[in-house]
Amino acid sequence: MTILVDMGTDRTGQSVPIDLEELLATRLLVQGNSGSGKSHLLRRLLEKSAGQVQQVVIDPEGDFVTLAEPYGHVVIDGLDHSEREVAALAERIREHRASVILNLEGLEAEGQMRCAAAFLSGMFEAPREHWYPVLVVVDEAQLFAPTGGGEVSEEVRRASLGAMTNLMCRGRKRGLAGIIATQRLAKLAKNVAAEASNFLMGRTFLDIDMARAADLLGMERRQAEQIRDLQRGTFLALGPAVSRRAVSVTIGAVETSARGGSPKLTPLPDAPPEDMKELLFSFAEEAPPPPPPPPAPPKQPASEALMERLAASRPAAQPSLPDKEPEEVAAITASVLRAIVADADSAYRAPAVLFQDFQVRCRMEGLSPPPLDLAGFTRRLACARAGIFDAPGEDWAPALDLAESLPDDMLGAFLLVARAAREGAPCPSDAEIAETYGTSSLGRVRRLLGYIESRDLFVSRVDLAGKRSISLPHLGWTTRPAEV
């Protein structure tokens, strides 16, 4: 099915369309200095293709959130979610084919790169049955795929660059069509830019950027000067989805606009210098200034901090419940944890959210205050997901000591394997470990096991029949071989 998206007109007034189906297979690179009309171009493409294909926008400045109301996009604020929650949302977006805008406004550069990397990785690693076609628009792509490290850590730069490279190099088979826009080609990693087959080049002034733009458009170097003379909103287009020869296109009008526009000149106040001086220095004779406005309400804390605050708060007058024996408290705690883990949706919920459920269930069982704080609950939840519902005794102390070097979210998967090894049971499958880890991606499970093995906590063996066994060399425990 051929769907043409009208982008504007050429010099003769003829319409210049983009073949949407071809664009999904060949990707697009947009380049132009600040003020050249890149955001206007992206907005035109998004508006005209809305309803024809799923759209995902990574928006570092919050310019595209105005698309939400008229076109039904869901806005995700990066400030409100952790990296793991963002990755989980990305997988659900692919499953439900929702058009979304990831708003990164308010985050520092490193935070934006972390959030974008987690989001793109979540989309990339979605299960095969959810590989529907989707336009992935990344504005200011040089922030997420820089040629150098800048002021961010090398770990963050590598993660963000790797996610962008996957989008542009390997995303096509997964239905991900990358559309990236940048102010300067010289600041954008070459292996990311090189994977686009369609180009819309706007006004730029630096020789190095003009030379790279001319190379991509197949122009001679002496012709590159015309890129400097392009008007705002006019781009040179080339590619299988647009035109086989470079054509000048003036982008058409849009229905929506960004929240903030370009500054406009306004007349200066018409006042003689003497009056202006009197206005400036009259503060000494004026009445005392009015009281300052009340402070702005504090920013809503992250979910973990909010749950801790809710846990710490207590009503002023609360009827006390009868004290219970330690054995009864332990039995109730184990029963509540068992009920939470039995809920199929709990595997994909954050511990802070489940902690609130834990508190409610404890009160319903006549246990208040709850016997665990958030940190203790997170640890016991990991044990419960591994099938250890009672408080771990001395026999589990060595395994828990080994797990101290692992991140908290890996504890459940580690203990699942450790329990099987301790009992001599078959090695857990990747699907079982994925459920404990709270993911549907088997690729994540393999990286998880590789990470734990790199810390010398696991030793994996695969026999000639393809069955895997895992040993814990520090403890002398080994699982029985089983299918992966």
TrEMBL record:
<dbReference type="InterPro" id="IPR027417">
    <property type="entry name" value="P-loop_NTPase"/>
</dbReference>
<dbReference type="Pfam" id="PF01935">
    <property type="entry name" value="DUF87"/>
</dbReference>
<dbReference type="InterPro" id="IPR014588">
    <property type="entry name" value="ATPase_Atu1862_pred"/>
</dbReference>
<dbReference type="InterPro" id="IPR002789">
    <property type="entry name" value="HerA_central"/>
</dbReference>
<keyword id="KW-0547">Nucleotide-binding</keyword>
<keyword id="KW-0067">ATP-binding</keyword>
<feature type="domain" description="Helicase HerA central">
    <location>
        <begin position="10"/>
        <end position="70"/>
    </location>
</feature>
<feature type="compositionally biased region" description="Pro residues">
    <location>
        <begin position="287"/>
        <end position="300"/>
    </location>
</feature>
<feature type="region of interest" description="Disordered">
    <location>
        <begin position="284"/>
        <end position="303"/>
    </location>
</feature>
<protein>
    <submittedName>
        <fullName>ATP-binding protein</fullName>
    </submittedName>
</protein>
<dbReference type="InterPro" id="IPR008571">
    <property type="entry name" value="HerA-like"/>
</dbReference>
<dbReference type="GO" id="GO:0005524">
    <property type="term" value="F:ATP binding"/>
</dbReference>
